[in-house]
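Lab notebook: predicted structure, single chain.

Context: the supervisor wants predicted structures on file for every construct in the current expression panel, including those that have not yet been purified. This is the next one on the list. No modifications to the sequence; it matches the entry in the shared construct table.
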Amino acid sequence: MNETLKNISNRRSTRAFLPEQINSSHLTDIIDAGIYAPSASNKQPWHFTIIQRKDIIDRLSVAFKEVARKSDNEYIRRLADNEKFHVFYNAPTVVIVSGDVTNDSAPVDCAVAVENMLIAAESLEIGSCWVGFIAYLLNSDEGAKFLKELEIPEGFKQIHSFCLGYKKIEITNAPARKEYTVNYIK
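Prediction complete. Output recorded below exactly as produced.
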């Protein structure tokens, strides 16, 4: 199997990270993988905010839980009430992906960029976990206070986030794939 396909099939969400920061050249490679993602009409409607300060990552997690306690979604409320839950699983690096609000394809284009970065991380033996919850916080009134601190440009909406770090444990078992999800018309 070629290396790209191997990295795609081996990638798993990591929720236990070692505390040390990832290598800066690897981080650059991961972000570059997102920058080179395809986008509709090549608009590249993304902005990436990389956070490597534990105090900010922890404050985002606490603030998310405050917002999540008010959610209509029972699962999200349960996470918020779990004192041990950290929205970024105590990873040393978090990337927030924001999309240009004037671009209708930004959510999909940004998702493609995230997937590129997660696969790149796997190829470098760096764990990752896609964390969509950050949009609950940063797009709320309570989360707006973080936008300036995080230097997210005006005109961008926070869509996705993910965390990165060296894996504390290696997850090797892939969950079973659903059957009958593909059909061929020849």
